[in-house]
Amino acid sequence: MSQLPEPIERLITQFERLPGIGPKSAQRLAFFVTTMTQEHVQEFAQALLTIHQELMICESCCAISDRSPCNVCGDPLRDQRMICVVQDTRDMIAIERMKSYDGLYHVLGGAISPMDGIGPDQLHFRELLQRIVDEKVEEVILATNSSVEGEATALYIARLANSFGQLKVTRIAHGIPVGGDLEFADEMTLKRAMEYRRPM
Q: What are the alphabetically sorted keywords of the record (predicted)?
């Protein structure tokens, strides 16, 4: 029988549902909530309650946003000729942090994974193909993860996109991170680094 008060047990159970949160982290978070002011707890609860009401999917790129079109799609200064294809909105945000890519994005909503029952019909491929036609896209940059699923998804898109003739299809490079030592790199990372080498 648990020695914890029932309200704390309930809160721990909810925190454990979050990815990357184990029992100890969930308990630490639950006890932290008990130290918060009533005002902060209400703000926290309100943010959780309203998140689904205030967020939507961008009608153009399929990213999670608070408006449609999203800030990127609605920016007339973005290069309309390039679309960077990513698996989810977090990947888009990561690329935006670079502040060096000025094209558009397309969020697939995941990767092809037959083991998980995710096929092309569950992802935003049709919308991507429609954009390529409607927006006169010149380059599609494939920025899916370097996992087996990410690679399979990139190959699937490349096959579809190559049917558009003059469309340029590129894949982001994978390899040794900046500041990384070769001795600590795994075989697949080294293999990719060699495959995607470039002239100096």
A: DNA damage, DNA recombination, DNA repair, Metal-binding, Zinc, Zinc-finger
- DSSP states of the chain as a string? ---S-HHHHHHHHHHHTSTT--HHHHHHHHHHHHHS-HHHHHHHHHHHHHHHHH-EE-TTT--EESSSS-TTTT-TTSEEEEEEEESSHHHHHHHHTTS---EEEEE-SS--BGGGTB-GGGTTHHHHHHHHHHTT--EEEE---SSHHHHHHHHHHHHHHGGGSS-EEEE----PPTT--GGGS-HHHHHHHHHT----
* Distance (Å, whole) CA 143 – CA 108: 11
From residue 38, alpha-carbon distances to 3, 5, 33, 34 in Å are 24, 19, 10, 9
pTM of the model: 0.83
For the domain that residue 22 is a member of, what is the CATH number? 1.10.8.420
Distance of CA 117 to the CA centre of its chain: 19
- pLDDT single digits (tens) 102-125: 999 999 999 999 999 999 999 999
**Domain region containing 156:** 64-182+187-193
Answer yes or no: do 145 and 91 share one domain.
Answer: yes
